[in-house]
Amino acid sequence: MKPTGHASRHLDTRTALDYLESRMDAASRQRVEQHLGGPCEVCHDLVRELGLLLERMRLDRVPDVTPEMLARSIGVFESPPATPGHRQAAAHFAILKFDSWSHPLPAAALRAVGEMRRLRFGLGPNVLELESEIESSNTRILRGRLQAPDPSLHRVEVEVGGERLSTRPDAAGSFAFERVPLGPALLTVTEAGNRYRLPPLE
Predict the structure, then answer these.
(1) Do residue 100 and residue 119 come from a single domain?
(2) Residue 1 within a domain
(3) Are 96 and 31 contained in the same domain?
(4) What is the distance between the alpha carbons of residues 25 and 122, in angstroms, rounded to a whole number?
(5) Per-residue confidence at 135, pLDDT binned at 50, 70, 90?
(6) Which pTM does this prediction carry?
(7) 161: domain CATH number?
(8) Beta strand extents in the chain (DSSP E only)
């Protein structure tokens, strides 16, 4: 609210919004309330109209989708399990593009990576970046990022010694498996109509 001149005593839109959304200090709020306590119809109308607009905007907001609801929604579009005589998802082998264990890295990169193994696979038109890091004497962490349209519609599975873990990437394509038992790990990435198998990860 500007301090000088008759017309300048009116609240501007930003001041009115800050007041309605409680984004001002106590002194500024007191000055606004003192002004609104007077007979200024212009400012009364401005605050009333902005208040109605903000309330309409709040009521129009869509609530955040819960993980359970997201899983149920994706499940609607997933194909049901194939029965005998029905076509299953086409199986493909992922193509290894990079492996930090077989490709030399600069010394600075080796210090940054440490014992972590980094791999890159081609899954048709998509790319999977994978990191494997020892977590304890008998477990490791697998982190990945799937570069694909709508990565959350894909399912990533890892199988080690009869134990199977499954997850979906987030909207950015990131996913992680923690406390994965050590041993040869078989990873697959599945999306509608296609299933990619990765070479066993030691």
Answers:
(1) yes
(2) no
(3) no
(4) 55
(5) confident
(6) 0.53
(7) 2.60.40
(8) 90-93, 95-99, 117-123, 126-134, 139-147, 155-160, 163-167, 174-181, 186-191, 194-197
